[in-house]
Amino acid sequence: MKKLNCVVIGGGAAGFFGALSCASKNPAAQVCLLEKNRQILAKVRISGGGRCNVTHACFDPKELVRHYPRGLKALLGPFYHFQPKDTIEWFEKRGVVLKTEEDGRMFPITDSSQTIIDCLVEESRKLKIDLRVETGIEGIEKSGEGFALQLSDRSAILADRLLIATGSHPTAHQWALNLGHTIVPPVPSLFTFNIPNFPLQELAGVSVNHAEARIVETSLVQSGPLLITHWGFSGPAILKLSAWGARELYQKGYQGSLGINWLPHLPAAKLRQVLQQWKVDSPRKQISTDNPCGMPRQLWKALVLKAGIPLEKKWANLDNLSLTKLLQVLSEDCYPIHGKSTYKQEFVTCGGVNLDEINFKTMESRLCKNLFFAGEVLDIDGVTGGFNFQSAWTTSWLAGQAMAEEGQ
After folding, report:
1. Across residues 307-326, what is the average pLDDT?
2. CB 234 within 8 A of CB 201
C-alpha cells in the first residue's frame, strides 16, 4: 500500500501541533512540516513576555467560545473534542506541567516558552517528522486528489493531504483563494488606543482592577483591568474592546471617543451617596488626597483636578456643582482616540478563510478535497489570555487526526 504523504505548511503552534497530531495518529504516514523562516515557533517564543501563555483555565466549551469575537459558533463543536483540559493533559504526558494564574491564564511552571518549544520539537523528532526550515513555497496546485507544491529551491513536493497553518500571512490567503476559497479581509485585533496629548501620561504604569471601557456612540463596551500607558490605555478591558470592535474601529479609521467608567460597580446614585457620606465623615480632609473609592492615590488626584476641583479644597467645602462634575469624571470620563498601537509583539488579526467553507469536524475544506486549515489563517481570533493558542491547538489537532485517516 502507498504510504500516505501529508504536508503541513507553517512552523508555528498550529503547524507543529497539526503535524504531531497526524504523525501520532498514523505512524506509517510520511509527515513533512515546511517553514519558510530559519526560526520555528516564533510566536510561541514571545507569547506572554517569553513565558508562553499556553491556554486558559476555562473548561466549559459553552463558556470558552465566548472569548472569541470571530469563530465562537464554529468552535463549539471542536472544543467538545479538544479543549484546555486536553491541552494540559497532552503537555503533562510529555513532562510539561502547566500552572494557573489568578486571571486563569496558564503557563509552564518553568515560566519559559523554551519549555514548550523543546517539548514540541522533541516530539517531532520522536515521531520522525520531516521538518524543513528556510523552505519557501512558490505555488500550490491541485494534482488529482492531492497537491503539487513548488518550493523556493525549485524542487517540488507531492502531498496526498495538505494542511495550511501559516497564521494570517497574505500569501496563505492567496493560496486559499487560488484553491477556491473566499477570504474575509483581515484587519488588526488586540490593540491599544492612542490618546493625543494624554493628560494621564505621568501615571503610566498605574492600573485599576476593574473599569468599564466603551466606544462612545456605539454599542461596544467591555470591562476588566485597565492600565494607563505613556500613550493612552491598555489592559484586558481595552484589548477585549479592540477585539470585539475590530471591524467597526477599522471602519472608523481608529478615530472616536473612549468612555471610561472608573467605578462600574457603583451605580451613579450609589456613588453620589458614597461621596456625600464621605463629606460628612471626613469634612477636614482634602478631596485630592483622600478618597472613599479605593482608587490609586495619584489617579484619584488627577481625576479630581480634571473635575476642576482645587487640590487644597476640603470635603466640607464640596458644593453640589463640583460634586456633580466629580461624579461625571468618575463614571463618564472621556478621551479622544487617534490611532492604535500593537499590543506588545503579540499581533493578532481577525479575518481569513471564510468559516462557512470549512467542515469543523475535520477542519477540511468543503470546497477542495484533502485540503485542511488550522489556526489564524481562518477567520478566528480570541481575546488575550491564551485563547488564540487554544484555538490553534484545537483546530490543528482535529486537522491532524483527519489527515491521518487512510482511504478518505
Report:
1. 96
2. no
| 74 and 180 inside one domain | yes
Domain region containing 300: 193-342
The CATH number for 122's domain is: 3.50.50.60
pTM for the full model? Answer: 0.92
Task: Specify the 3-state DSSP secondary structure of 328.
Answer: helix
Residue 408 lies in a domain: no
Give the whole-angstrom CA distance, residue 149 versus residue 32.
12
Residues 54, 58, 59, 63: is their CA dihedral positive or negative? Answer: negative
- 174 shares its domain with 232: no
Give percent of the chain with pLDDT exceeding 70: 98
Task: Say if residue 131 is in the same domain as residue 267.
Answer: no
On whether residue 64 sits in a domain, the answer given is: yes
Q: 478591558: which residue's cell?
A: 237
Q: Do 99 and 142 share a domain, yes or no?
A: yes
Confidence (pLDDT) at 343: 62
355/96 Cα distance (integer angstroms):
33
Residues 223 and 293 in one domain: yes
- Sequence-separated (6 or more) residues with CB below 8 Å from residue 100: 57, 106
The residues, any chain, with a CB within 8 Å of residue 162's CB and separated by 6 or more, are 6, 7, 8, 9, 140, 146, 147, 149, 370, 371, 372
Q: Are residues 262 and 166 in the same domain?
A: no
> How many folded domains does the chain comprise?
2
Specify whether the backbone of 189 is left (phi greater than 0), alpha (psi in -120 to 50) or beta. Answer: beta
* Pure H helices in 213-354: 236-244, 246-251, 268-281, 297-306, 320-332
Q: Tell me the three cell numbers of residue 172.
A: 496563505
pLDDT in tens, 17-67: 999 999 999 999 999 999 999 999 999 999 989 999 999 999 999 999 999
Contacts of 118 (CB under 8 A, 6+ apart): none
